[in-house]
């Protein structure tokens, strides 16, 4: 991976801090700066002048070595420069933007925000900024470190999405799984089928994502090393699609006549597949990521069962009364449609469970809490790449420090061969939208998702909850300082409390 | 109650809306306007032009009568005026401020915010604002409708407190129970003992409430018909007091020598009582309300038990090993000290349970969830005024719509005489601060506390959860529109989503 701007997977990083009277940060290879600078680095400082709150980093780097050799820093001459051996350079917009961003974080005449080294910099007795000579070698344990946000159960204003992308970057998350539409609303504004949002959004003008909005999300994410994987979940979870697309959904029957309600996508009409072909052709061009999430979870068969045309089709196909065969029939055709757009796809675990034939590069997302380990075994035994979200459904809340539960999860604890373990490429923290919107999403997500971030980034051996608590307390205050309303872990305070409301 | 500005108890209200071609709101008696205008009035409209979302009010008024007679409204001539029979007038600053406040809520050329009648005003087919002739008679079921916020476990910036007073007013809460200090920090800046906050606050400058801050909170609350009752909880929950007041706390012993840690207020030293005398003299002048909350909950006896001087004192007093007697000894002297300031006092239930002799006008707060009904019986049987907070500890969170549990509570369901029931003057929703600060307090409090608001305001017969849900969904959107990040009850949207972060 040598392209400037590629976010996935993250490469290894080697980084050296050296200095003279005025310290000069050297980054090598520099084209990785954005990726690593999404978080903070941890130094095991020797000097007694360091206080507990000056040495915390989140997520913990894989390897670092700090020496007692300290350099004094001068705001006037401190700068971020390209290392000689860097293959990137001033032409790399991604890096230039990152430089600017970290400059802007900086309060005048302090060093705080210089890239990720804030916690390496400390004030000495005379108020002079110091930095110790430090070597850091860092890389993520898992390549896929995602956050799922749901903009259908509640519309999420652009501002909220961008703020959470910022917070994701601070926690080294690199995938925004955008569960953009669902039963409740269809805020994605389609150029090909504008009626989907005109009739399916909560409001056709104020509760939609315009093409420009979507572009902004993608670009804002890209600048922070984050991929955007949109999910257009079918054939279930599609009630809102039916408002703007006639005959897409299955008419449910009450006895011998239509009840007026609708079920999953109608899998027996060619028009459904024609629609999906056009729709996903658009999606494949709007979203640059190599993957699209196609959903495929929780299909309710009752409506299909009630419909005489569906019944007839089942008989013709020899499906008997096994409606999961009909579901697979639909999904199979959909996957072929999406494959033709040259995109890879992710699916929820049911698609695998139902025996649908999947492309080799399919990513299966394991979300069901019961029999999670069994599922991981099965999916990886079949040779499929897997991501895990089951233990990290952050919409479920409870009193107290539930982040510890998320933190204690070991994604590779299931029985399996090394080859199987390697197929688990990461995980996602999911914040489904039933109970969250712009008013409460951000504090509910952070720092609870930070626990998942460290689990997916740091070494498997990083499991000390007490140590994690101490670092996370400070990490959440850093988020607060940057304007992210990350909620407290427990009693205490931040030097700078949240200034918003 | 005829004074302008008195907030407690709230009197009955009679209010008539009449109108000609241009409607004129008449308020009678007008000096009550502020009290009633903390919420919205509900009209059982006849006209088919009303949609569900136009007729919701929270909390539901005691009585209203709406007719089909509608008046058109003109922004140019619409005004709020003093009724002829009003005993108040333009000299009543409270009312003038309320008028101005509701004017400011008003977007240009709409009627939305005119006092509380927003939901009585609706657009007809031609976009003209209409209002139906409506008679409303309203009064609260319970006189004490409080919110407890805790500014010790986490410091709450002034902005957060003021925003929540605003939200309280919108929900007709009329008591801010300010649990201002506790073990973790002492943010109250005392003129008499400045070291209490200098050494006991999380930070002596940024995490304190200056005298000016306190005044602002009190005045902001007063303008909205809200009393401010400060709680200075002793003898337990006082760890932070010890930082700035030498010898106030009991030294704990490990074996025969002091361990270096401290326990509750030292009840055997005269200096403790001298301190309390001076301290509460200040408090009694800073806080104008007739009541001070003195706490008295959860006293941990282990430190007292370890201390040889305390042991000796226990023996001298003939307390044996019953440390609750020592606790009562302390509380008794404290109550006498506070009584001398001419203030009434509130206490947590343990003070009553331990048999401390209380002034007749003491308010006992029942907070323990187990044996709640038994406690209500006992306290009221003894003739004490009571408020209930046990079922409304909003710091305990769970997945789903827990507001319904708060809503279903009937405060007077305990067995007792009518005279006993009358002693229950209200209740409080408590949001203890272990897990909340400026980042998440407001959405966690609202609209969950709104359920308590209606229970304490509306008639006992108002218990339909489905109807409440429909109204509360809209009420929370009104709060969001006014800038309060009240979280969603469930899936859905607000016409205007929250604009903050």
Automatic annotation (TrEMBL), chains A, B:
Catalytic activity from the UniProt record: a ganglioside GM2 (d18:1(4E)) + H2O = a ganglioside GM3 (d18:1(4E)) + N-acetyl-beta-D-galactosamine; N-acetyl-beta-D-6-sulfogalactosaminyl-(1->4)-alpha-L-iduronyl-(1->3)-N-acetyl-D-6-sulfogalactosamine + H2O = alpha-L-iduronyl-(1->3)-N-acetyl-D-6-sulfogalactosamine + N-acetyl-D-6-sulfogalactosamine; a ganglioside GM2 + H2O = a ganglioside GM3 + N-acetyl-beta-D-galactosamine; Hydrolysis of terminal non-reducing N-acetyl-D-hexosamine residues in N-acetyl-beta-D-hexosaminides
InterPro entries recorded: Beta_hexosaminidase_sua/sub, GH, Glyco_hydro_20_cat, Hex-like_dom2
Chain ranges passing through the membrane: 19-42
GO BP terms in the entry: carbohydrate metabolic process; ganglioside catabolic process; glycosaminoglycan metabolic process
A GO molecular-function descriptor: beta-N-acetylhexosaminidase activity
Keywords noted in UniProt: Cytoplasmic vesicle, Disulfide bond, Glycoprotein, Glycosidase, Hydrolase, Lipid metabolism, Lysosome, Membrane, Signal, Transmembrane, Transmembrane helix
The enzyme's E.C. designation: 3.2.1.52
Superkingdom per UniProt: Eukaryota
GO cellular component: cortical granule; lysosome; membrane
Localization in the cell: Cytoplasmic vesicle, Secretory vesicle, Cortical granule; Lysosome
The UniProt record lists the keyword Metal-binding: no
Active-site residues (renumbered): 298
EC category: hydrolase
Chain ranges of the Glycoside hydrolase family 20 catalytic domain: 142-459
UniProt subunit comment: There are 3 forms of beta-hexosaminidase: hexosaminidase A is a heterodimer composed of one subunit alpha and one subunit beta (chain A and B); hexosaminidase B is a homodimer of two beta subunits (two chains A and B); hexosaminidase S is a homodimer of two alpha subunits. The composition of the dimer (isozyme A versus isozyme S) has a significant effect on the substrate specificity of the alpha subunit active site.
Similarity annotation: Belongs to the glycosyl hydrolase 20 family.
Chain's role: Hydrolyzes the non-reducing end N-acetyl-D-hexosamine and/or sulfated N-acetyl-D-hexosamine of glycoconjugates, such as the oligosaccharide moieties from proteins and neutral glycolipids, or from certain mucopolysaccharides. The isozyme B does not hydrolyze each of these substrates, however hydrolyzes efficiently neutral oligosaccharide. Only the isozyme A is responsible for the degradation of GM2 gangliosides in the presence of GM2A. During fertilization is responsible, at least in part, for the zona block to polyspermy.
Protein name as catalogued: Beta-hexosaminidase
Organism, scientific name: Cyprinus carpio (Common carp)
